[in-house]
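Sequence only, no structure available. Ideas?
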Amino acid sequence: MPPGTGGDHLFVIRARTNNAVSRPDELCEVGPCGSEALQRGTVRYVLARITILALVVAGAVLAWGGRGWAGEQQVEWTRADLVAALERGPGPSKGSATASVVLVYFTDFQCGYCRKFVKETLPKIDEQYIRTGKVRLTFRHMAILGEASVQAARAASCASDQGKFWEYHDALFANTSPLAFNAARLKRYASDLRLDEQTFATCLNSTVHAKQVETETLIGRALGATGTPAFLLNGQLLLGAYPFEVFQRGLDNLLAPAPRAAPPQPRQ
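Reply:
I predicted one. Tokens follow.
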């Protein structure tokens, strides 16, 4: 079974590429976590079109971004479809719903580079772009560092059900001990945030958010996110915990008004 798939579904993801794009060796110093290729220094990737063949067993239904399927059938998604679902589909977000730039943020709560981004870079993006209405930030899970990562992702989604996703997100990144993500600790963070403890425990002990975490992780990989943190800036993939200045340049370029076309020259 391919990595990131569960027992109910078999996904075969085929990526057809045209031109390879090299990522700089600098990525080794800024992450992302969970990528052996990046640790070697260079990753080549481009997804021009993604086809997902879904075989759903026992009548299970998987819906994503308003499109779903049941039984046995083939569903084809373009890269643009997946990006749009990630940008506008249900999930935690910050900023204006009408912002012209959408920053999709993939993370694993055990990832040290993700913690670095949350501590050093995200507050500056929040202050200068999100709170000012220029950029909308959308969170997506990419739980790739083991079962504890999956458990933490599910817990964050349970907190989201009670309107405390971002507070719980911050609590997870503030705790770095080896046992930070066991069930008892995850429930304690919920208690500290004054969530309904019984509701949270019932959610965490169930599999209600398992498919969400699995699906977002799978789509992130399909789009070329080979580790965390990973980002989509209006669909453009960026890998690694870059300093704020890198995001600033990218966001400012996307926010800059399009240059006016030169008026046609009169014929001589």
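Residues 1-29, 36-74 have pLDDT under 50 and may be disordered.
Hope that gets you unstuck.
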